[in-house]
Design brief:
single chain, about 290 residues, alpha+beta, five-stranded antiparallel β-sheet, two-stranded antiparallel sheet, 8 helices, 11 strands
Length: about 290
């Protein structure tokens, strides 16, 4: 009867379907990784363990904000006024070399602009702003992050802050694929992470840290990097696999290199290429 397809049919979009296990050569040599091909079950590479995830944590932050304050495509959403405390917090974070965007007391950010600041230049200060705006305090918001993780079956995940700056915010690649998939079902989230730049009232034009965006089928999602986490990248790419247009959603964590963001991007790109090559070989074999 030939071989089982590497990807599932689009007609099965509402249910996970069986998928042939990926060969070990697909996975990065370092760190950990996991993927979901089409709507199949998540496949995890070796060395899955709870590890720091850096700014990949912001995927959960954005997901919760949009779940609690839904936006339609084209909507800006309610205005969030930044306070003197927000400005002081930004200065503090800048002093310890965190990723921030400039802000000013009295500045008004729409919900969409705040999410753009969170997801494109990866602003830790805006992660804190959004957490307090959504839940009243960062502590309450973090509790909601963890409750949501449990509800999604992310059993090896523990959030301790909304930005991922805290090394105690840990997860596995396989767990993070679950929240990336959920977030990408929200059209506003998907549209923001597919954007190269945005313009904010005080910060001006900000750039997306995802240099793969628009190349080789990559349509998002979120980079992350620091000393403890290494290079991290949660991603979605659209490729032709087994002759079909297929969505590949994945996460790589703990990639080594001097430029950690570049290392995470390179590991993801290479993994998606190998998945495509595996599918092509299986398709070719089925016709022999």
């Amino acid at each position: 009867m030939g071989v089982r397809s590497l990807v599932s049919s689009s007609s099965q979009a509402n249910a996970q379907s069986p998928v042939e296990a990926l060969p070990g050569t697909v996975w990065p040599a370092y760190g950990q990784a996991a993927v979901q091909i089409g709507v199949s079950a998540v496949q995890a590479g070796p060395h899955q363990h709870a590890a720091p995830i850096a700014s990949v944590a912001k995927v959960m932050t954005a997901y919760l904000v949009l779940r609690d304050h839904p936006l339609r495509l084209g909507e800006e959403g309610p205005a969030i006024e930044l306070s003197d405390d927000d400005a002081a917090d930004t200065d503090r974070r800048r002093g310890q070399e965190e990723s921030v965007v400039p802000v000013a007391a009295g500045e008004l950010l729409s919900e969409r602009q705040a999410l753009q600041a969170l997801l494109l230049p990866s602003a830790n200060n805006i992660a804190a702003v959004l957490a307090r705006w959504d839940a009243g305090s960062e502590e309450t918001f973090v509790a909601r992050m963890n409750a949501t993780a449990r509800s999604l079956g992310m059993l090896h995940t523990r959030y301790t802050d909304p930005s991922g700056y805290d090394d105690a915010t840990v997860s596995t690649a396989a767990d993070q694929v679950r929240i990336v998939d959920r977030a990408m079902r929200l059209p506003v989230f998907a549209s923001i992470v597919a954007t190269r730049t945005a313009t904010l009232p005080v910060a001006g034009v900000v750039q997306n840290t995802n240099a793969l965006l628009g190349h080789e089928g990559f349509v998002g999602v979120k980079t992350g990097s620091d000393d403890a986490a290494g290079g991290c990248f949660a991603f979605r790419a659209i490729r032709r696999i087994d002759g079909k247009r297929t969505t590949v959603t994945g996460v790589v964590l703990g990639q080594p290199g001097h430029d950690r963001i570049a290392a995470g991007l390179a590991a993801a790109a290479a993994m998606v290429d190998r998945i495509g090559e595996t599918g092509d070989r299986r398709l070719k074999g089925a016709h022999l």
